[in-house]
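REQUEST ID: PR-0412
SUBMITTED BY: lab tech R.K.
PRIORITY: routine
TASK: structure prediction, single protein chain
INPUT:
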Amino acid sequence: MSEFMLGVVSSLLATALTVVGGWAFSLRSRRWPALVLSRLTGLGVLHVLPRQQLAAQELSAELARARWVRVLAGRGNELTRDSFATVWDAAGKRLESVQVLLPDTTTGYDSWLSRRESDLRRVDPGFSPGLLAEQVRINATYVSEITRHHQPVSLRFYDLPNLHRLVITDNVAYLTMYRQGEHGRNSPCIVAHRPGVLYDYALLLFTTAWEHSRPAEAG
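STATUS: complete
OUTPUT:
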């Protein structure tokens, strides 16, 4: 009987360790230390994703319930994807405003955009000179067409270091910090909630860039 009970206890202990171990190493549980630290410091960090592309599904859900949206992109490819479809559908209805900032492609050869392109060519040989600017122009044309049909959507161009991507709603900010010589989709993304220091900082970055940008209709 004692051997039987020992076997049962051992099995239960092994099962418990498996469950606890799985919980300890799950993505959700790993967010708890960040949340605790965030509350203690006021940073407002929900979690940090190792790659921006992992935020797509979560971002789409957040955009679906947003009242307004601010975007500063290094290229703008995601603006044409499914994650932003809900934004364009809701512009002028549920959404109060959508502001989009894309890199200025008219600033010449030695621009911040061309420097970013040079960095990418080190890891991606497919990036021929001018390709990044061409992709930005294509995405800008897409957004410009949307602005013709939806008044709350605004597009402007910035001439600043191409160092990060911002997607901000009235509740959450997604801040991607581009690694040198790495595509934005593979760079880490900080998700911060409002109120919080990082959310306020992301919004300040966007507002400052917007105030020093040029309107799309200027050229």
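NOTES: The CA atoms of residues 102 and 140 lie 7 Å apart.
REVIEWED BY: pending
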